[in-house]
C-alpha cells in the first residue's frame, strides 16, 4: 500500500482515456463527455487507433504515442484487452489506472491465469495502482474532474463517498444533486482488488477538504488494515456506513456482486461500532445522514429543542426522540417568560414549543431567536405543517435569515422539517440553498439528529478509561496453552466441561465440579464421594445439544436415581440417534440456581473478522449472531461494559432483577478474561459456555464446549484488532540500581500517564511540546493511551512508588505512516529520573521494535535547547542535523543499514 501513489488518483494533472470513442453509448464516449464537460484543467488524452480525434480532441493511436506520462488512465475497453493495456501503461510510467470492465476474475488466458490476476501482476511489477475492476470511475468536484460513467457530475462539497456498488453511486449522486449537496470526492471502488477501503480511509481521514466520509460496503477483505484505518479516521471526522448483506440471502448476493468473503452481519456491526463508525440500515437513512453531515456543526451536547405550528408533528418528533434514546431540552423559566412575551397565550408553555397553527414568519423567527439565545439547547428542530395562510416560503426565508445572523450559527445545529409535497417543496429548496438541513418528515429529522448523537456517544464510549481487572484474578496462558496443545497431540477436536475446567481456571473462571465416568457404577462411586444432589449428562461426540435428545437428568439425590438416570439417558439417546457413540457420562454437582440468572457466552470464528465474542440468553435454537450482542476481542473492562450495555439495550440480554442476578462488574471481568483466553490461545477455534450461572459477584460456567483447531493450524493474523503485545514487556535496571518495567502503554494507564505528564517541569514540557501548553484533557490522554498497536507504539517505564503503586517515569512513542516507510518518535523522562540511563533504554527499545517491524526509517525532531536529546540520539546511531531556519534538530536513522541495538 502507498499513500504516495494515491496522490495521482486524487490530484491528477493529466488523464488518458484508453478506448476513447466517438460512438454514442460506448463507455469511452461517455467518459470523454464527462471529462470535457466537468471543467478539468489538465490535458485530456484520448487513446484509440480508430479516430484522429475524439469529440474534437486530438487522439493518439497508442499509449506509447502519448506526449506525457498520464497521472491517471481510465481503461474503457473489454476485459480481454486490459492485461496488455495495464502492462503498457505501467511500463510507460502511469501511476494509477481505473478499470471499468467486469468479469475479469472469471475469464482466463491460455495458461489458466485469470485476466484480473494477470493485470494485477503487471501493475505490481511496475508499481502502478489499480482502481476496480468493475468501477464506475471517480469524481473529484474540487478539481472539476469527472472520470466516470455517471449520468451527472457531482457538486463540490466536504463529504467523501466511497462505494462498492456503481448503482448506489448513481442513486446517491442523483439525490444529492437534487438536494444541492456536494462532495469532496466520489469514488466507485468496484471489486477493490488493489485500492481498497483501508487506503482510501487513510487518505480521506487526512484530507483537509473532507469533513465526513460515507461508505457503501458489500464486503471487507483486509480486516486489520480496514479497522485500523477506520479507527484513525473516525477520531477526526464522522464515518457513516451502509452495509449490504444483513440476511443470509443478502450475503450470498453481495458475494456474487464483488467476490468478497461473506461474513456475518452482526460481526460487521460489532466491527463498525468498535472502529467508531456509525451504521445506517437503508438508503433513506443514508440520505438523511448525508443531509445532516452536509450542514451540521460538531455536536456540543444532546439537548434538542422543538418548534412547531402543530401538536401532532411535534408529538411524533418527541416519540421518535425518546424511543431512540434522545434527550428533550428543559427550558428555564427565563426562556419560557421570553417566549410568553412574543407568542399567543395559548402556546404550549413547554418544549416542544407549539406556536399555534396560524403562526406567521415573525412568530417563528422570534421563537427561534429566543431558543438560539438560550444556553439550554444543543440543537433545534423547526417543524412546519401546511397552513391556510400559505406563508411556507416566507417563514423559511425568515428562519434562514435568523440563523445566518445569529452568533451561535457555528455552534448550534438547526434542523428543519417542512411536511407536505407541493406546498413545502419551495421552502425546503430555500433551506437547502441556505445550507440548513431539511427533511420531509419529523421522524426523518429526529433520526438524522440521533445519528449525530450516536456518533458523539460512540466516540465518548470508546475513549472511556477502563478499570483494571482485580489483581487476584489469574491470567496463566502458559498452563492453558500446555493443556490445549496436549489435547491437540492426542487428536482431540472437542473439550467438554471436565476437560476444559483447568484451562478456564487458569484465567480465574469457575466451572461447577464435574467428573467424567464410563458407566453407572463409576457415576455412583463419584456421587457417594461428592455428595448429592447431582446432575447426569450424556457424553457423545455426535450430540451437540444434550437437552435435544433428553440426555440430561437433574436433581438426582440417591444411588438408585443415578442408576435409573444412566439407563434412561442411554435408551433415549439411542432412540433419538441410533448411530450416536456414547463415550460415557458427565457427573456434575447441582448448582444453586435460586435467585440467579442463566446466560450464554460463545466465541465464534467469523470468516471475515475472525474470533468474535457473543453474549445473550441462550437456548437450543440460539443463533449467536442473531440472539446475542457481539464484540471483537481484545476486550478490556470498559469495552466489556459497553458490550453488556448493548446486550441489555437490544434486549439480547434481559436483567430479570433476581436477588442474585446480573452484576455488571462480574460480567465484565468474565468477558475480559474470555477475551484474554482467545487472544492467548490460538489453539481454540470456538467456545460455548451454556449455561453460565450469574449469581451476583459469583459467575459459574455450568457447561463448556471448546472446539480446537488442528495442531498444524497457524494463523498469526486471526484477530481483526491487534492485541496488547505482552511479549514486549521486560525488566531493566537503571544506573542507580532502580528496577523498572519497560512495556507498551495500555488504556488503563491514562490516570498515571496524566500524572506523569503533569510531573514534567515547565522546561521539559516546553521541549516536549515545542512550546507552552496547558494540562492535557481526557480526550487528548485517550489518544495517547488507547493506541492501535498495528499503527503506533508507545513504551513506558514504570517503577514501584513508596505506596507500592506503579509510577510512570518515562515514555517514548512513535507512529508510522500507513505505508510503514517511516516512524516519527517523541520522548519524555521525569526530571528527577534524568541522567540515569532511562531515556537510552526507552529509545533503544523503540529502535529494536521498529527494526523487527521492518520499518525503514526512524526520525524525530527536538528543539535547539534540547541538546541532551540530540546527544543521546547521536550516541545510538542517529544522523543529527540542524535546521537553522526552523530552529529544530532533526534525528534520522536508517533502520535497515543500522545494526540492531543491543539490550
Short description:
GO terms for molecular function: ligase activity. The chain is of the alpha/beta class and 903 residues long.
Layout: helices, strands, pairs:
Blueprint: H1 3-10, E1 15-18, H2 27-38, E2 44-47, E3 53-54, E4 57-58, E5 72-75, H3 82-92, E6 96-99, H4 115-126, E7 129-131, E8 137-140, E9 145-148, E10 156-163, H5 166-179, E11 183-188, H6 197-206, E12 212-217, H7 223-234, E13 239-243, H8 248-258, H9 265-274, E14 278-280, H10 283-295, E15 303-308, H11 311-323, E16 327-328, H12 333-342, E17 353-354, H13 361-373, E18 379-384, H14 392-405, E19 413-418, H15 422-433, E20 437-439, H16 442-462, H17 477-489, E21 494-496, H18 497-505, E22 510-511, E23 514-517, H19 520-530, E24 534-539, E25 552-556, H20 559-576, E26 584-589, E27 597-606, E28 610-616, E29 628-631, H21 637-649, H22 664-680, E30 684-695, E31 698-701, E32 704-708, E33 730-733, E34 739-744, H23 750-759, H24 762-769, H25 778-785, E35 792-800, E36 806-816, E37 822-829, H26 838-852, E38 857-863, H27 867-875, E39 879-883, E40 888-894
Parallel strand pairs: 1-2, 1-5, 5-6, 6-7, 10-11, 10-12, 12-13, 13-14, 15-16, 15-17, 15-18, 18-19, 19-20, 22-31, 37-38
Antiparallel strand pairs: 3-4, 8-9, 8-11, 21-32, 23-26, 24-25, 24-26, 27-28, 27-30, 28-29, 30-31, 30-32, 33-34, 34-35, 35-36, 36-37, 38-40, 39-40
Helix pairs in contact: 3-4, 5-10, 6-7, 10-16, 11-16, 12-13, 13-14, 14-15, 19-20, 21-22
Domain N-acetyltransferase: 740-896
Pfam family, one: Acetyltransf_3
GO molecular function: ligase activity
